[in-house]
Amino acid sequence: MLTKSQARAFFVIGTGLFTIIFLGLTVDTLKQIPHLTKQQNMSAEVIKGKHLFDQYNCMGCHTILGEGAYYAPELTKVYQRRGAVFIDMMLQDPEALFPGERRMPKYPFTKEERQSMVAFFEWIGNVDTNGFPKDPPLGKQFIINPTKFDTEAEANVLEPAHTIKKPEIFDTLCLACHAVAGKGGAIGPALDGTSKTRDPKWLREWLTDPQKIKPGTTMPKLPMSDNDLNALVEYLSVL
User: Fold this and answer.
1) Are 69 and 61 in contact (CB under 8 A)?
2) Are 172 and 80 in contact (CB under 8 A)?
3) Higher pLDDT, 215 or 145
4) Between the CA atoms of 64, 102, 166 and 127, what dihedral angle is there, to the nearest 10 degrees?
5) Is residue 134 one of the residues assigned to a domain?
6) Do 176 and 155 fall within a single domain?
7) Is residue 109 located within the same domain as residue 155?
8) CB-based contacts of 221: which residues, under 8 Å, 6+ apart?
């Protein structure tokens, strides 16, 4: 049993000790912030993107770094998950990418403002958050386990028999609307066995201008580079 003086001394010493520990951890955290947040990459464009993010109240529907609403997808790693092209298209016209599926309003972003938003998402996606959120799944290659399929042919649907690297744009754009072996979106038709139904010439013309091939189609014209187009046609031609 402690005496009054011992209890007082225990309280004062304990409070003082843990106050020092708390202050030390606070100082250490403040010192690490520039490194953890990649502060050197926080350009004027990134800052402008953050202001636009706040101005249009994006956190009213989305979360970022775990803060915000849970109505729409988490955006901390959206750049790593979707890439710059998808984000830019989404900011231009959400309905065009997901006709009848999205409730995100179309904001009057200029091209420069969209670029600032993309820069902001790229920066925040590189912030060291100690593993939060988990690595985005769309950036990873599918892992084939033939034992999960009924036949070898079904197992080969995900990866073509020929050794052709899956282009990044396939994961960031195509899988948003289309599925392969049950993985991906359901807005557009599944792409399983595309090589058996479409030849490279048709695929190139379709990806270049879907409206020219099928007027009124919901498939948007994707802003792809020639390299992306060539890689996607080559990949789909053997899928």
Assistant:
1) yes
2) no
3) 215
4) -10
5) no
6) yes
7) no
8) 208, 209, 210, 211
| Structure-derived torsion over alpha carbons of residues 196, 198, 204, 206, reported in degrees to the nearest 10 | -140
Q: Which structural domain range is residue 143 located in? A: 139-236
Judge whether 32 lies within some domain: no
Give which of 129, 217, 212, 221 is closest to 173, Cα–Cα.
Answer: 221
Last residue in a domain, options 129, 148, 163: 129
Q: Which of 200, 208, 212, 186 is nearest to 236 (CA)?
A: 200
* Tens-place pLDDT, residues 168-222: 888 878 887 888 888 877 778 889 888 889 999 999 999 999 889 988 887 888 8
CB 111 within 8 A of CB 87: no
How far is 208 from 94, CA to CA, in rounded Å?
20
* pTM of the model as a whole: 0.65
The verdict on 124 and 143 lying in the same domain is: no
- Token reading at 122: 């790229």
- For residue 206, give every residue at least 6 positions away whose Cβ sits within 8 Å of its Cβ, in sequence order, or none: 198, 213, 219
pLDDT digits (tens, 9 = 90+) for 72-94: 999 999 998 888 888 998 999 88
Q: What is the CATH number of the domain that holds 149?
A: 1.10.760.10
Per the structure, the count of domains in the chain is 2
Q: Which two tokens stand for residue 137?
A: 């799944």
